[in-house]
Amino acid sequence: MPSVHLRILTVIMFLLIVCFCFFCLFPTNANAPSSISINETGLKISRQVKATHEKTIRPGQPQVEEKNSIPVQSSVPSTGQSVAVTEDEPAKVNQGNPADTTKPDQSLISQTTIAPPANPKSEATDQLIKRVDDINNMVALTFDDGPFPQMTAQYLAVLDRLNVRATFFMVGQRIKDYPELARKVVQYGSEIGSHSWGHARLDQLTAEAIAEDLRLVENQVQTNLSREISLLRPPYGGRNDNVLAVAKQLGYKVIIWDVDPRDWEDPPPEKIVAGVLEQVKPGSIIIMHEGHPNTLKALPVIIQRLRERGLEPVPVSEMLNQVKTPLGKPLASLPFDITLI
Length: 341
Fold this sequence. Notes:
The protein has helices spanning 2-25, 27-54, 106-112, 152-161, 172-177, 179-187, 207-225, 241-249, 269-279, 293-308, 316-321, and strands at 128-129, 138-144, 167-170, 191-194, 231-232, 253-255, 285-289, 312-314.
């Protein structure tokens, strides 16, 4: 028996030595089973991904957007308007310190601004007014973003001294904060239009949110000035089908511009003057901004140079009222809208 046990033990030792040598000489073969498992798992995942990308969309089935695709903005029935068209304008109004001037956020502009169509006629509707044709001796003078303490009164003083009235597109929150300045604008003979409640991008809101925003401004003007407003300038000039449809429903004309000296960049006064004179023509709508000292310095020179060209600065509504139709009646007296672009 001992010899049998010894033989068995010898065989076992021999087998262990053989196995040890095998694993030492062929280590990759030892790991082969786990590698196969991983490859098979990866193959299954690969097939699942491939199946996802190759999946076809059946007729009538909504297409799922890719993660990096550009979302399509929902809108009301098309009116021929380009979606989310914007003009260059400062990125925001500083609500923290009203005395501060507004500076543009160039990164925001570059990311959100879409260039207007090459042909302005393609976005013409009865709500959108960029300039007014058939005008020989007028231009509309407009100011955005007010009212501003210590600044709005100075703008009004210059206008009053030169016997000029203008259109002030005001932010609703600022009217709430400085109602006496809004009242002063009206007392000096100028008019007020809506520039939204908080200088938001209206073209990025739903129709319901746009309507709520505009009603807040209306209520503020009615409460503090006992007046109704009918002119709207969307911040940044941003407009789409939703903006135009809501504006029409609430009785607004959407007023943009064709003359922009980019005074919100705070260039020297002489550059602001040159920017206006290089672009202006009869019927132009000039956009400038409150809260900018250089704009204030340029203002009297601009008015003087315009008059030298036979162009009288007036509020937007006054220029619209001068437009004659084929019937010979002023635009404001007609029961329907006429496109001006």
